[in-house]
Amino acid sequence: MHPVVHHPVLTKLSDLFDNTYFASQLASILASFSPHDGVCLRIDAVVCASDRPESNISKVATSNDKSLPLGWLSVENNQNLTTTPSQVTSLTSLKSPASSKFDLQSIQGYPANSQSASKDGCDNVRHKTVSGLRPSKSSAIAVETEESDSDPDTGSRLRPSNVRIEPSVRQFHSDTRFPQRKRPRKDAATPALQPSSVDKFIAGIWRQVHSPVTLSVSFPDRRPEFNLGTGVSETVFRAVNGLCKKYCDQSRSSRALEIIVQAYWVECYEARIASIRLECPHYTNAEARMAALKEACSTLTWHEKELRNRMAVWRGYKEIKDSGGWASLIFAGSGVYRICKYRIGFDNGLMPRLRHIASSLEVAADTLHPGWRDLLRVVSQNGPCRYSGHPHEWVTVDTGPALPLGTTYSHLVLPNGFNYQFVDDCVIDQNVFGGNDPRRELGIDPNICQLCKEKQTDDVVSNQCSCFPALFGGVRYPPPVQLYNTTNGKNNGVIARCEFDRGTAIAEFVGLVTRGIDGVDVMMGGTPERPYQVFQGQMGNFTRFINHSCRPNTQFQKFYWRGIERILVVSRGVAAGSEITVDYSDSYWRKLRKNCLCGETGCRFANQLETYPAT
Prior knowledge:
Elements: H1 8-16, H2 22-30, E1 40-47, E2 66-74, E3 79-81, H3 85-95, H4 104-107, E4 172-173, H5 197-209, H6 234-279, H7 285-300, H8 304-330, H9 335-341, H10 350-368, E5 394-396, E6 403-404, E7 421-422, E8 427-428, H11 430-433, E9 481-485, E10 492-496, E11 505-508, E12 512-514, E13 523-526, E14 531-535, E15 539-540, E16 547-548, E17 554-561, E18 564-571, E19 581-582, H12 586-589
């Protein structure tokens, strides 16, 4: 299939109009041309006076139809060709007298010339693409950095100013278009693939690790201190909820202790067989096993068949522990029994996958549940935590234990080394804005959602807005993501440990809210009259390390919560185990002297360095 079929412009148009057959139809047409033909694909917008059937689209347009040429795609070079005014005139004369100086950049939401930009460097044209980053106009070429925006910004100071921001650096702009959830097609040719039992099992481990469950060895005796005879008030119901959570955690801890002992029993059973062979050299291996089995039956008061059936499941626990570590077994949840009883995936890739994520699981368990190793005291296998601090202060690697975040930037010469502070919310620069929050929109009701028009409040009970419950107005869990070291030259990236459905908010883009920064990457927000910048050079969250892709699986989305503008990373459909990426936009890349390393088919900037003259 010709690469132009996968061009980002055609892909976005196909998704916008939900036309899944356009790519195959275009490929069949291109196959009829000779490779030496200079074929171009012209994209037109036709304004029709009536709603005609699809079969008449190819016919000659009537006098009432107005054709607006948008641009060209070079089939031979898979590049955008900007339409010149002379080309526009010749094109419009074929079908109608209407004329327009649109080019391909117009449908992407970028101005055709510098006069369309505002004085503050913000585009007046509404952004129409799904990608979330748009740099303001700049005549300066940015210095060469790492592939991801995760590289620390060096050699620059914050220069707060009360004057308007001059467009002298590349700056991010968030998109305002919400990623619509795909509607299932009734006539879909191929059914959607469902995750396997192994995929569900591993995803369940990650969900348990990132859940607020409390694992403890001590079980205090807590009895109800209320009487239901007079009714259930809010206070009584809250106490019952606390009691329920307490014993749910206790049950979860008891179950974890049970499988720990059972997995350890298998090790002891194998060791006892070896001891019997030494004590009785004339015993065969089968006789030694039978002797150890009878010793266990006499103590457990179980029949031999019952013990054999249980031991088959327990042996599966041990194999999981040996491959993925104790953390993979403790946080496996109730599904581990079924996996081990029927040995689902044991001969089909489960163990290699557990070995691959063993170190990553240990990082998440140590940083999110520091006391989980206390459960291992029951079999004298406990020890100190290997990882401490924030979960994203560690970078997972495929070849060994996780590395501290700072060591992954040792190749950069920094005056004070790499220092990055993880924060949950944006920090306002008091030297620039004082006690005011520039993100607050004064013209809207802070208690009403601008999307669903429902009540917004931080109280989970009273809140009625459910636009992004994972971040606002609901119970918040740690996002199931980790930093990992890429293998294609992009240094660090962000990997999703669980699936994020389309339209789900993954995290908020947080950092230092300031103004007047030049020479570094920032997220632009606000309005041309009241702009601000979100700078992640010294503080922020894991969104600082999200890499670029020409076919991203997330986008930046503006959202107002309690009257304050927030910039969210919203999923476009992120699969478990895949890297989280976002589109940095065309204008951002045009100011970089480096090639894109996303590796996607139809990458727009794979040969970016060739566009600059040799110096």
